[in-house]
Every structure is written in structure tokens, then in C-alpha cells.
Design brief:
With 466 residues, this protein is an all-alpha fold. The protein contains 18 helices and no strands.
Length: 466
């Protein structure tokens, strides 16, 4: 386990902030590296070795690529790097999954590997691979300072659950960046927003989903639909909240991480949804898998193959379980259907039809995502279509009791508040008194978030397991 939320907020962050801004500029990277490695190794020191091995491996690969003279030699180094990085990820993340399925199919009794998944291994492995690939392509310079490279891999704000930061987007800021009061203030506001999304909204929706599904998936239709909606809102606020916190902390230290979410639930198609959801992952697969496979440049059959490969890998990236494989293929097939059939139809229909279609498709997708045990999925889908009745009295009472919270979360998932904030800034931004309501807003968000954490209760991060 990493720090608890309260330890992180009350001890770790204040110590990092204080020392970082007191520290001479030339020592700041070293300080952040020490704190980042300490942060990662706090709960499970043995897996710090895995991270250090990844740093050393990819640092050396970068140096070798910089010195290699022949194209064949560079390709060999790249191949070795890809195999070793994916091999490390595969052993830890998919080793037990492979053994279990071999035993099930071949009726063997191979022992499980009994390896605990290092937190964030998918994220830092993909970051390391992007560096090696970009150096090979000539899109990034070789980082000769091992401590600077170690900071890129281990930087704690986005280490555990992203966004996936490609080296060429922060290369200049690792070597030289500016940390000032304005940037720190903007970063803290973004961090507090993400904290509130996670603690006040995601946790509440997670509690609703857990309450409704704790007795199994044989639910009345209303309960099943409410549970699916609760999970959809939980995972959005969970992951986008963490991304906001990471981006905000990055700003405090002078780093500008790319956006990872752009209000995906306003989308009018699945294609648009995946341009707005987990943008760093979609971009990574496009840059390093889809385009190298040929993208859409080698005919429709190969384009179909490439899309299915990307989405199979996207599903597997999320976890070593068959429900993630199904989830990936589900979206791969839907995107193909849109690309070759539905897009022209959707473009001619009123926009609200596209919104409804997208939300329904996404809700069914989250059902596949939510249950690691594939055998539970048919029962839950059957519940959504009424095989266990429409609603019970306790179900209707539960829905009525939580309807206000659902409306709040639905509104918070839309760009409504962002647009209101922009209008306020445009109209009153140059007036000193206009800062008071904004300051009060963020103070209250932080206060209620901390109060919720002190109270305790449901507080998982869904994406920590990836």
C-alpha cells in the first residue's frame, strides 16, 4: 500500500512543498526523485526494486540507442527493449492469469506464481517504452543524466495511476522549468478539484454501486440500471479526479502534463468518447501500436485487424481477466461498426440521438468492466432487461433517497461549471473582490474532502490495480 490519503495530505505533501521551494533550483530534481522513490517504496519496498530495474534498463537502452551506428543495431536494441519491458509487465501482471488458464484448459496443476502486482506498473512501463521508442525514432534526445531519467519514470504525482506522460512532452521541463506562485496556485486549485471529485463524488457513487450489488446480480431492473449508472459516474470521477490531482501537482512543480479527460459523457459517438476518455492511453496506443501496424494506410482489412489488435491490447492493459478482454473487443467492434456503417447515419440524426446512443453503449461497456467474474455479467445484463422484475419497494425508496446526489454528479460530469467559471473570469476577473468567492469555493471543497477522509469509509482508487 502507498500512503493513506490523510498521510499524503497532512505529512507527505506539506514536506515536499516546503523543501522543494526552499531548495536551490539545481537540487530540485534530486529532491523530487528522492521523495518519489520514497513515496513508491513506502508500503512495499520490495517493488521499489522493480521500478529501479525499469529505470536502469531503459536508461541504458537509451544510451545504447544514442551510440548505435547502424540501423540494424538500433532495431535490435529497440526489439530487446520492447521484449524486456513487456516481459517484466507480463510476468507480474499476466503470469498468474496464464497459469490459471493453462491449468483450466490442459487439466494440469501448474503452481501459481504468487506475485503481487506492483502498483502502477502498467503506467510506468508504458512511459519507459515511449522514451525508448521516441529515442529510436529520433523524436527525443538521449537523457544522459540517470537521475533526471529516474525522475521522469518515478515522478510521484502521476506515478500510480497516470496520466501516461510521454518523454518528449516533458523533456524540456525535466532539464529546466519555472516554478512560480501563479503556477503553484493554479496547480493547487486543480489538485483540490480532483480531490473533491474523488472523495466526495466517486466514493459516494462507489458506495451506491457496492450497496446495490453486494447481494449478487439478480436485481430488479431499476436497481440494475441505477447500479450501472453509479459505476459509470464512479469510474469517471475516480480516474479523472486522480488525473486532475496529478496535473495539478505537476503544475506546482513546474511540469505541464497533457490533459487526460475532456468531459467524455457529452460525446455523440463512441469514436468521440474515446477521444475524450483516458486520452493519454488512447494516444499511446495510436502512436506506438496502431500507426506502426500500418494504421489505415494499407487497406481496409488491415485497418480492421489493427483496430481489433489495439482494442484487445487496451482491454488486456486494464487487467488480467477475461472481462477486460471482452470489454476491449466490445469497443473494437463498436468502433469498426461506427467507422464503416454508423458514422454517416449518426451524422444525419439529431445530436441528442447520438448522446443517448453513446451513453447506453458506454453503460453496457461498464457492466463488462465492473465484474472481474465473467459469470456475473449475463445475470446483471438480464436484470437490466427485467428478468427479475421492474422494481421493489426498497429499490424505489433507495433511488428516491439518492436522486439528488445523482443529479449533482451528472451535472459535475458536464462542462457546465467550467463554462460558468470562464464567464465569471471574463466578467469579473479583473476585480480584486472576485477572488473571494473562488477562494471560498476551493477552501470548502478541501475542507469537506478532508472531513470525509477523516470520517473514513469507502475510499478505493479503481485505477491503482492497473
Amino acid at each position: 500500500m502507498v500512503f493513506s490519503s490523510l498521510e499524503f495530505l497532512s505529512l507527505f505533501l506539506p514536506a515536499v512543498f516546503l523543501l522543494y521551494f526552499l531548495c536551490p533550483v539545481r537540487f530540485r530534481n534530486g529532491l523530487l526523485l528522492i521523495f518519489s522513490l520514497f513515496f513508491y517504496g513506502w508500503g512495499e519496498p520490495r517493488y521499489l526494486v522493480v521500478m529501479l530495474a525499469s529505470i536502469l534498463l531503459n536508461y541504458v537502452l537509451g544510451l545504447l540507442l544514442g551510440k548505435a551506428a547502424s540501423a540494424r543495431g538500433r532495431k535490435a536494441i529497440l526489439a530487446v527493449g520492447v521484449v524486456l519491458n513487456l516481459g517484466m509487465l507480463g510476468v507480474f501482471k499476466y503470469g498468474n492469469f496464464v497459469v490459471e488458464n493453462v491449468n483450466a484448459v490442459a487439466k494440469t496443476a501448474l503452481p501459481a506464481l504468487e506475485l503481487t502486482l506492483p502498483i502502477g506498473i502498467s503506467f510506468f512501463t508504458f512511459q519507459a517504452m515511449s522514451y525508448v521508442i521516441d529515442v529510436y525514432r529520433g523524436k527525443a534526445k538521449v537523457q544522459k543524466n540517470p537521475f533526471s531519467f529516474g525522475l521522469y519514470i518515478s515522478l510521484f504525482p502521476q506515478l500510480i495511476a497516470g496520466p501516461i506522460v510521454r518523454y518528449n512532452t516533458v523533456e524540456a521541463e525535466i532539464n529546466s522549468r519555472t516554478s512560480d506562485f501563479a503556477g503553484a496556485a493554479k496547480g493547487i486549485r486543480r489538485f483540490v478539484t480532483g480531490l473533491a471529485k474523488k472523495v466526495l463524488l466517486a466514493n459516494g457513487m462507489g458506495a451506491v454501486f457496492t450497496s446495490l450489488t453486494s447481494g449478487g446480480t439478480a436485481l430488479p431492473a431499476v436497481s440494475a440500471w441505477v447500479a450501472a449508472l453509479a459505476f459509470a459516474l464512479q469510474i469517471y470521477f475516480d480516474f479523472s479526479g486522480y488525473s486532475d490531482m496529478a496535473i495539478g501537482l505537476g503544475l506546482v512543480f513546474g511540469f505541464h502534463f497533457e490533459e487526460n479527460f475532456n468531459y467524455p459523457y457529452v460525446s455523440k459517438s463512441i469514436t468521440e468518447f474515446w477521444s475524450r476518455w483516458h486520452i493519454s492511453l488512447s494516444t499511446w496506443f495510436k502512436e506506438y501500436v496502431y500507426i506502426p501496424l500500418g494504421g489505415n494506410r494499407k487497406g481496409k482489412l488491415k485497418q480492421v485487424r489493427n483496430i481489433l489488435v489495439v482494442w484487445l491490447l487496451t482491454g488486456l492493459w486494464h487487467g488480467a481477466a477475461w472481462n477486460f478482454v471482452l470489454w476491449g473487443l466490445y469497443y473494437g467492434l463498436l468502433l469498426l461498426l461506427e467507422k464503416f456503417v454508423l458514422k454517416k447515419v449518426l451524422d444525419r440524426l439529431p445530436s441528442f440521438v447520438g448522446h443517448v446512443y453513446t451513453l447506453l453503449v458506454v453503460l453496457f461497456g461498464w457492466v463488462l468492466f465492473a465484474f472481474d467474474d465473467v459469470s456475473l455479467i449475463p445475470g446483471f445484463l438480464g436484470s437490466m432487461f427485467g428478468q427479475n422484475g421492474f422494481a421493489a419497494a426498497d429499490t424505489l425508496y433507495f433511488v428516491k433517497s439518492n436522486v439528488g446526489f445523482f443529479v449533482l454528479c451528472a451535472a459535475a460530469s458536464l462542462p457546465l461549471w467550467k463554462n460558468l467559471g470562464k464567464r465569471w473570469a471574463e466578467k469579473y476577473g479583473d476585480k480584486a473582490w472576485s477572488l473571494a468567492p473562488e477562494l471560498l469555493w476551493y477552501v470548502l471543497l478541501f475542507f469537506f474532502s478532508v472531513a470525509s477522509l477523516v470520517k473514513g469509509g469507502y475510499n478505493p482508487f479503481i485505477y491503482f490495480r492497473f
